[in-house]
Amino acid sequence: MPKVSDKWPRPRPSQSSLQRRALHHPGRIWVLLILGSLTLNLVMIALLASLYEGGGTPGCKAERSILVAEKKKSVVAAPQQQSTAEELVSAEEISVSSTSGKRPASKDAIINLDHGDPTMFESFWKEMGEPGDITIPGWQAMSYFSDVTNLCWFLEPEFADEVRRLHKLVGNAVADNHFIIVGTGSTQLFQAALYALSPPDAPEPMSVVSAVPYYSSYPAVTDYLQSGLYRWAGDASMFDGDAYIELVCSPNNPDGSIREAILKSRYGKTIHDLAYYWPQYTPITDAADHDIMLFTVSKSTGHAGTRLGWALVKDKDVAKRMIKFIELNTIGVSKDSQLRAAKILKAVSDGYELPVSQTNHRLFDFGRQLLSIRWQKLQAAVKASDIFSLPDFPLALCKFTGENTGTYPAFAWLKCEKEEVEDCEGFFRKHNIITRSGRHFGVEPKYVRISMLDRDETFHLFIERVLMLHH
Amino acid sequence: MPKVSDKWPRPRPSQSSLQRRALHHPGRIWVLLILGSLTLNLVMIALLASLYEGGGTPGCKAERSILVAEKKKSVVAAPQQQSTAEELVSAEEISVSSTSGKRPASKDAIINLDHGDPTMFESFWKEMGEPGDITIPGWQAMSYFSDVTNLCWFLEPEFADEVRRLHKLVGNAVADNHFIIVGTGSTQLFQAALYALSPPDAPEPMSVVSAVPYYSSYPAVTDYLQSGLYRWAGDASMFDGDAYIELVCSPNNPDGSIREAILKSRYGKTIHDLAYYWPQYTPITDAADHDIMLFTVSKSTGHAGTRLGWALVKDKDVAKRMIKFIELNTIGVSKDSQLRAAKILKAVSDGYELPVSQTNHRLFDFGRQLLSIRWQKLQAAVKASDIFSLPDFPLALCKFTGENTGTYPAFAWLKCEKEEVEDCEGFFRKHNIITRSGRHFGVEPKYVRISMLDRDETFHLFIERVLMLHH
Fold it and tell me: What residue intervals traverse the membrane (chains A, B) (predicted)?
């Protein structure tokens, strides 16, 4: 890779925010310099002291009146569901088995496509080489703090810069009028958002809903601590009430559909989970501009092991409460992960923006091409089998590529059309293919979710096996 | 040898003596201020400007610290007291201010010793050089899974190996008959342990207790989600009941004392927080062998920004539930942090075990020497002041060093003996020193906790200032 990176006008975090501000306001500093006298100095010192003794504008005082749950609340009573919390949790558990994340050992081995483990992207990053590598010296990033001038004091400035740059490049979300909050994966940010949107002193926990089929982790992650702040309340389309948090996953996990909030109430809140709103999966039709939007490197670049997500949040008080959650939950977020993710996102943007960048450095092209081939193979195999069906997706103009493109979701949402097969997951398991049943997503077990993001050898073995499943 | 750089007393002679004289006699503060240069003036102005402007986060940084500092006074959380969780949580919040983690900008700047930010160790790792560095290729550690043959499927084997090796070297804990569980800091593992030890179907939340003075985060972290599984119940010595989880922090944060569980019931459980049970802080008298033991790189090696802790857990079912918590909370733990921590722990063990290892690669020697000097300085300053007192610690045989050694806690637990000073934190704040009040730890505000782990320049400024505080 030619050394052009130095010429590229990437905004770099300045060493000191004080310096930055001083440079942004030369006029003010000049006036202050003229007026700078001992008196002023003393006034400043006195003011500063008073700030530390209890000033502050009321707008920033996010009161957190958290009441101890005096009695165990019946957290489970989702209006539409009769199952107990324990059943819910055990049904929705992340199931890790000895085949998870592994290459199949032989032709007949178990193929595990239960998780969306994005190992398909490994080959891209091997090809990328050095620009994707990072070295962290032993003495670096030791402090708890990243940038105390930022509301999100544990956010590494380099990472924030690369997040804004990437959204600008891809055009999938408006980052500029939003606070960036970094999280230990979007899972932690999802919980931070629930915490932020639930009034601490409400008589009842806030209802958390999502339209079926919804991401299988939502119910378990909402209910595992039996929080008095919020509780899972099932399918959004069945919800009857004014106060709620609606989870809108778009493109949707598991079925890849583009979604909007279906509930409308002035008391309702929405969280937009946009983990899959990237050009390898779906046409980028507009820059999303919602109140809370969640993203993760797991699905954008394939770095699931880095456990790093980010939220774009419009409202300052909501942002503050989300930050408070992350302070209490994990006292911030791994700086090593943030530094690495900054490097990874930089390599992705450089791949498109550097004048001489190589085509094999273009992540979204790589992802889209590979997924479109995989989807063709799967559709052909499904057609040949005559016992399954898949959703259809229309073409749409992608503003990122400038072309009419198809939709290639990270998961196949497959339905068993065989009348005698009620349990599609069980059917696949008989053929040593592990999938995730529709019942985890709030629908019938005739559906299964299948990862499309595994390594080539696993995917090919899967297609071979589907081709053998004749009617 | 990384210089155990105790630069005190060697400030620039002219300035220092003038300053000291000036500050011994409050009237001369004015003289000092007159001598305050334009640079100082600018620093104050810039600092103030940053506090008020705040870029995207207007005005919030200062307020957050203030919020916490000036809140509720009565926080002592004996279960019998009717203090609400609101009081508890606001008082126990982690307070981040514009000075957190920063070097003081001038002699008179605010010194922030509120957090135990372990930046004192930076100079050791700078001296260590390459053996402490890590390079992570772009394609590595992309999967969610680390080792699915391990109960803790997200635990990197290299990290687990280095944890066992280090405990064997130091002799501070028995790791061999325990499961290792990695967490996003010991804070996450603490919550995982609460989750694991609380029956999901009990009629009442489990009571969580700890003897005063207890670590200030315990109440807030226990109660912020208003869990139906567990709730904070205050001082262990005031607890009356059979079912509880007792938190035993040893050496104790904030006061450095060696502790054992004080409650005894066959239905009670204990969590041992051994974050500070390392040879730089305290003599290693025995290999701890408790049911659940928590450790963190933040305090052992100084890598707080890495957000990595580990638990040693005897019971398999408890381990499984802790792992389940981490799955639901963050789907595992950053592999980048784990790989880096493995390298760091390896460098620490190599420093003692490699035949040709250099003495400047011996972390615990470095830490103990520096802390013992710092404690001498502090004890001298406290004695000179005649208005404070510190706990006394006996010498003990350290099995790691083979010598009788003293105790040099990571925090000074300081009491204001001045009768008219009820609020020791406020007293220090008037002298631009930020500490954490005893009330956050469940005791009277005559006590404050002060970090001993900051960078040299911060610590020296602190000692200078204490020396000026005469009776």
Answer: 29-52
Among residues A107, A8, A24, the alpha carbon closest in space to that of A462 is found at: A107
Contact assessment for residue B200 and residue B228, using Cβ atoms and an 8 Å cutoff: no
Q: How far is B425 from chain A (nearest CA, A)?
A: 11
Q: With bands split at pLDDT 50, 70 and 90, how would you rate the model's confidence at B318?
A: very high
**ipTM for the predicted complex:** 0.83
pLDDT at A9 over 50: no
- Cβ neighbours of B126 in A, within 8 Å: 138-139
In the sheet that B436-437 helps form, which strands lie side by side, from edge to edge?
B388-389, B411-416, B447-451, B436-437
Q: What is the pLDDT of residue A66?
A: 26
| Alpha-carbon gap, residue B349 to A352, rounded angstroms | 44
Measure the CA–CA gap between A49 and B194, rounded to whole angstroms. Answer: 40
> What pLDDT is recorded for position B89?
32
Tokens of B99: 């000075």
What is the 3-state secondary structure of chain B?
A: CCCCCCCCCCCCHHHHHHHHHHHHCHHHHHHHHHHCCHHHHHHHHHHHHHHHHCCCCCCHHHHHHHHHHCCCCCCCCCCCCCCCHHHHHHHHCCCCCCCCCCCCCCCCCCEECCCCCCHHHHHHHHHHCHHHCEEECCCCCCCCCCCCCCCCCCCCHHHHHHHHHHHHHHCCECCCCCEEEEECHHHHHHHHHHHHHCCCCCCCCEEEEECCCCCCHHHHHHHCCCECCEEEEEEHHHCCCCCEEEEEECCCCCCCCCCCCCCCCCCCEEEEECCCCCCCCCCCCCCECCCEEEEEHHHHCCCHHHCCEEEEECCHHHHHHHHHHHHHHHCCCCHHHHHHHHHHHHHHHHHHHCCCCCHHHCHHHHHHHHHHHHHHHHHHHHHHHCCEECCCCCCEEECCCCEEECCCCCEEEEEECCCCCCCHHHHHHHCCEECEEHHHHCCCCCEEEEECCCCHHHHHHHHHHHHCCCC
The 10 Å Cβ neighbour count of residue A164 is 17
Query: Residue A34, class by beta-carbon neighbours within 10 Å (0-12 exposed, 13-18 middle, 19+ buried)?
Result: exposed
How many Å lie between the alpha carbon of A327 and the closest alpha carbon of chain B? 7
Q: Which residues of A touch B142 (CB under 8 A)?
A: 118-119, 121-122, 125, 302-306
Q: Whole-angstrom Cα distance, residue B248 to residue A364? A: 51
User: Which residue is closest to B140 within chain A, CA to CA?
Assistant: A122
Q: Provide the β-strand partners of residue A180.
A: A312
B67-105: pLDDT as tens digits:
233 332 233 333 333 333 333 333 334 567 777 877 787
Tokens of A59: 């707008």
Rg (CA), chain A: 25
Half-sphere exposure of B218 (CA within 13 A, CB side): 34
Q: Give the chain B residue whose CA is nearest to the CA of A222.
A: B328
Sort out which chain B residues have CB atoms less than 8 A from A122's CB and list them: 139, 142
Q: Per this entry, what is the length of chain B? A: 471
Burial class of B84 by CB neighbour count within 10 A (0 to 12, 13 to 18, 19+): middle
CA distance A285 to chain B (A): 28
Query: Rounded CA gap, B26 and B469, in Å?
Result: 10
Cβ within 8 Å, pair B307-A340 = no
> What are the tens digits of pLDDT across the range B19-64?
433 334 444 444 333 344 434 444 443 443 333 333 333 233 333 3
Q: Check B142 against A226: CB less than 8 A apart.
A: no
What chain A holds in terms of domains, given with CATH numbers, is 88-122+361-467 (3.90.1150.10), 145-353 (3.40.640.10)
Residues of chain B neighbouring A97 (CB-CB closer than 8 A): 148
For residue A195, the chain B residues in CB contact (below 8 A) are 224-225
